[in-house]
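Quick entry between incubations.
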Amino acid sequence: MTHYLSIKDIDNLSVWVKEARILKSQPKADKNLGANKTICMLFFNNSLRTRLSTQKAAMNLGMDVMVMNFGSEGWTLEYGDGTVMDQNTSEHVKEAAQVVSQFCDIVAIRAFASLTDKEQDEAEVVLNGFKKYAGIPIVNMESSVGHPLQALADAITLEEHNSKERPKVVLSWAPHPKALPHAVANSFVEMMQLQEADFVITHPKGYELNPAITKDVQIEYNQEKALQDADFVYIKNWSSYKEYGKVLNQDPNWMMTKKKLGSAKFMHCLPVRRNVVVEDAVLDSDQSLVIEQANNRTYAAQIVLKKILENL
Ligand code: CP
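Done. Structure below.
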């Protein structure tokens, strides 16, 4: 594998999950694979889990790690071709990406959606700009459209806790005061499309995700109905896709409660706003898998980096 940009870069999800679980049992088994190799992690946005888990994964593989908070410490980048750079951008991605690649063997990038310009966001200008000009493998640490490291960790967590041949998994929208991107939900949907499961998405009308991603996944606008007999409930807020980046609804009745959860396992990528997205009683119960999801971020990143290193 050369790049890890989306779930589509996984050639066999169940094999990757199995391999990641083996890595989890022996995290240092490949500690020499990354010797004399460097990963450079560029953050255009904040992070806790992605930053620490990807760094931990690289360290488990014996890599050197460089981290830069590009959003606050780097020059403001230009992505357009032929732009007269007499406004706010200081450096073109053509130079920046080539310069970064002088110092490392893999570049990992986090660059969220603007949520103001759908066309620009869907073009993934940061990720694709670096891909085009860096000439070295690129790892997506959450882009405008996807968060494939999170979805891979979620697949590992599902596998660890599933006891059924065909579990029922529900992705439910929840309220949030701010406009959030679609990336986590998109990649979770793409990952679930590779699973043997009854998968349902539930959200208020107007919060349909990109239909090119959801395709024929069942959408149920009645949350109570969607949650019936669920084995796993994945809660996430996202802003409207159709009315791009808008918050249309903050109905607190969509918050996940212990009563609504029933006997299902609760999943969320974190960070999460307590008692807005989900009530304390869920997060503090043994039905919550959120800490295990966060822990599995290391092994998701490690299997991705391992496959890239094996191909260098
Ligand atoms: N879930 C996730 O990506 O967490 P961070 O934003 O803290 O990295």
